[in-house]
Amino acid sequence: METLKTIAARKSTRAYKADQISEQELDTIVLAGCNAAVGRALYENLHMTIIQCPETLQKVIAAAQKASGDPSKDPTYGAPTLIVVSANKNPKASNIEIANAASVITNMHLAATDIGVASCYLWGFLGGFAAEPGLAQELGIPEGFTPASGIILGYAKDPIGAERELSKKININRL
Fold first, then answer.
1. Contact 81, 53 (CB under 8 A)
2. How much is the CA Rg of the chain, to the nearest whole Å?
3. Domain boundaries of the chain, sorted by first residue
4. Residue 138 to residue 34: CA distance in whole angstroms
5. What is residue 104's three-state secondary structure?
6. Least enclosed by CB within 10 Å: which of 36, 56, 95, 172?
7. Minimum mean pLDDT among 5-9, 17-21, 121-125, 157-161: which range?
């Protein structure tokens, strides 16, 4: 397995070419997300919305800009694909939908890196759904589901670069 090499090469890309990723690449990335670790295996409490239509993507961008108050900021960094992961709250497990969405996004982020597609985990764009209440419905997000996070995909404007050395970046205590 080359998992640690993929982790070492993973990075958040914030500048994209306009070229769309291939259907095969998209399918590989989505499949990885669909097989993420999900609490109690409640996959039915998650939903993915894949946005590749430029006009629809622009609506999401405009809503995020409205929410942030900054009309010059593009939360998608010019990426041609956005996947919104939405979740249905589980009353038996408080906030597990956030952890589940994070697991899905992480799997997709690593799969994208593994096949040479640039990506970036997104959170800040979610304010756009509050700024434009009808946006979730327009995007086909099921009733009762709330956008929890997202990932952008595309080809990096600049070379992705070499893998970095893995290091312990988080403070750790052992008992």
1. no
2. 16
3. 9-154
4. 23
5. helix
6. 172
7. 157-161
Contacts of 30 (CB under 8 A, 6+ apart): 48, 50, 83, 108
Q: How far, in Å, CA of 47 to CA of 53, rounded?
A: 18
Tokens of residue 61, six digits: 């961008």
Which tens digits make up the pLDDT trace of 123-153?
999 999 999 999 999 999 999 999 999 999 9
Q: What's this model's pTM, rounded to 2 decimal places?
A: 0.94
**DSSP notation for 6-43:** HHHH--B---B-SPPPPHHHHHHHHHHHHTS--GGG-G
Q: Report the percent of the chain where pLDDT is more than 90.
A: 79
Question: Could you confirm whether domain 9-154 is CATH 3.40.109.10?
Answer: yes
d(CA 112, CA 120): 10
A 10 A CB-CB count for 151 gives 25
